[in-house]
Fold these 2 entries.
Entry 1:
Amino acid sequence: MATSTLLVRFTLDGEAYLNSLPEEKREEVLKRLKGPALVGRAELEDIVREIEEERKIQEVRKELIVEVRRSAFHPTAKDYEADIYVDRKKEVTGKSRSKGEVKDFIEYFRNRFRRLKSFFPSVGGLVDIGELPSFAGEEVRVVGMVMDVDKGTNARLTLEDLTGRVRVYLDTSSNPALEEKLQEVVPDDVIMVEGRMARRSLIAKDISFPDIPPVQFPLVERDLAVAYISDVHVGSTYFMEKLFEKFIRWLQGKEGRAETAGKVKYVVVAGDLVDGIGIYPGQEKELVVRDIEKQYKVFQEWMELIPDYIEVIIAPGNHDAVRRGEPSPALAKEFLSLDAHLVGNPSRVTIEGVKHLIYHGTSMDSLIAAIPWASYDRPERVMVEYLKKRHLSPIYGTNPIIPEAVDYLIVDEPPNVMHMGHVHKNGYANYKGVFIINSGTFQDQTPYQLKQGHVPTPGEVPVLELREKRLKRITFHS
Ligand SMILES: [Fe+2]
């Protein structure tokens, strides 16, 4: 019979399973048991899986370390000191004071409204909604927050500001493009409506979003590059470790073309480093590692294989061990004791003078549901909406928001690069000079995604060569 120095008891199937293991493995499993408890076969199988996973990584590690020593790879990135600035004023880490009370939400939405309104030109005069009745029959411009929107045959919306609310109908005869614009409008957007005030409602001739102005990419003298990844999902049965290993080998100059790899001075990870625990019902059946700390331990072991001269920037996602409400703080050092920049979600990081806006992208689910043409297949089109709306989680509701005194989700200064993940699908665009990058995943299609008909693109890493302003797609899948 199997024994343990701890006061652990086994169920009959647990004991039979334990006795069927080779002696060495049995010893290792017994060492990892935390008693006192009644342990069954399922728990023991978890521990065995974990041991095997760790062993695999150790083997890869040994192999890669030996190869690096022998390597003739001379990366140019190694010759330069890093030039990186994390703007801690613009992220919530260490600054969350919200109690989530009603008055916090009221203050939050007032603050959001005022700041988004300030992005509209006030030239020509804006009218407060409360003053509209005295402008009957006149042309007016108002800025308001969308209370509700009907994109059906009625094509109308309700707009609200701090002084009142008004129903808005579209005058599509003077502007046929208006109906299309309405498709992009979602609840809680702050928009400007130009039109004529009828007796009690406003007849819109145009709708506009706060939008960003065109952005100039800075001049970068050093020939360095940034690699963007996200949604690694370590700990998941579907984590594609062979692809991830190839990515690490590529960074080490041992896979594919070394020229671009040698320029990589920065790796940005936009969340979902691990699969997490209890993220959705039945997730435990899809986990190889069922302990959150161990998931991070495995992720850390992978990260430690990245060459030392590369700076790693890590933001959390909705699967990570941070609060689910956004904005979320950086991951605690107790989970990751890496020599890396742990930043919040969202966060602003300037790399070689290039301004980055890093956000996991969880709110994309609600935007895709609210905009008829939006889809998981084209994340870059949805990402453009964040810049137009100048907010990273415009719709209040499905994506929880913590009402902080400062709205860290507002896109105040337009970035040069906007990096997101979450949808597991690579996507790229350039909007008004901003590089829009969705860095895909290293997780294979999950049963849930299969049911939804969602096809991920694992193993494709976008790399931005900063001096050349050139975005390359490095693919590790066959
Ligand atoms: Fe993910």
Entry 2:
Amino acid sequence: MGTPEGLRELNRLRVVDALRARGRASRSELVPLTGLSRTTVATIVGDLQSRGLVVEDAEGNGRREQRGRGRPSAVLRFHASAGIALGLGVDERRLRLALADLSAVVLAERSLELAPYDTLGAALDAVEELVADALAQAGAERRQLMGAGIGLPGPIDRGSVAVGSPLLLPRWLDDDVSAELTRRLGVPVEVDNDANLEALAELTFGAGRGLEDLVYVKVSHGIGAGLVLGGRLHHGATGIAGELGHVHVQPDGAVCRCGGRGCLGTIASTGPLLELLRPAHGADLTLEGMIALVAGGDLGARRIVHDAGAAIGRVLADLCNHLNPSAIVVGGELSAAGTALVDGIEQAVARFALPAAARAVTVRPGLLGERAEVLGALALVIRDVERLRSSGLPALHW
Ligand SMILES: [Zn+2]
């Protein structure tokens, strides 16, 4: 990088990285972010604009800044031609897909019921069709795709990138999801589990913006956590980090699908809560029905959701002592039940964590709802552009 060309390339990458990290920024905001001079930033931005990779946002009026006598400073963002990221989020029932440009502006979203698909191959056939459809809606071409992120339920083995537990996702166990999707789409594919990607989404776009250390807890048919330490997702040695639902809480409790006994998930996930309510509200009570009961102020429903929060918070209190996060962000299907769950968690953390750790942490609901996983898959790709570049697949246009 000692040559003038090398230095120019390095400076250009600084601008590109800063704009990617911020999503949108004015020229004057890019100066301190890159450490480059105003003239150098203006030259590089001009070059990126002349090649159509960066555009001035016509809708950026709310962000325009007036500096002295100078003209308003336009907000810059990436054009879709600079590259498009594909995010996929899969749960037991549904697949969600989103396309975004490198400024994380979502260009198209689709979803698909997964129930009819018996194999990964059949599901990915449908995914390919859905990608083509979404690209057409975004007015983009397949060659602009630069990477895909996919979120799957259950732990992901970081060595093989195969789904970790046969008990949690039996149909897809033997398939290497990443390799198969890479082959079909012709772009690098990153796989992570749902809770990790939802944590990344809340960190990037939602309730955790600006934070460095947070615990995201997902309460659905299972319970999982995504740990963000020092601004980065923590996977652990083999990808098991954050398996909160399998923390042992009841010595004589029910047998869990992991083979353990009395795991947190056997008392505080949506399945066992529904079983507690069914004697009073009927055997056909659904999750949506339970959430409606809580929202309607049903005392019994509110009580069991609050108790579930307390059980989860008891485990999170210990985690706060270990990790000292500044926020616990609560998501997953049960988070739609509103304040009862968050209150239960908050009270248990206040009661059982070390006072200094409890004071440092705020418990807050996630902001992204059921879109969190697919947005996290997008964030995974957008944050990882440099690595994708060095993989040589595909050729990028800067
Ligand atoms: Zn378990």
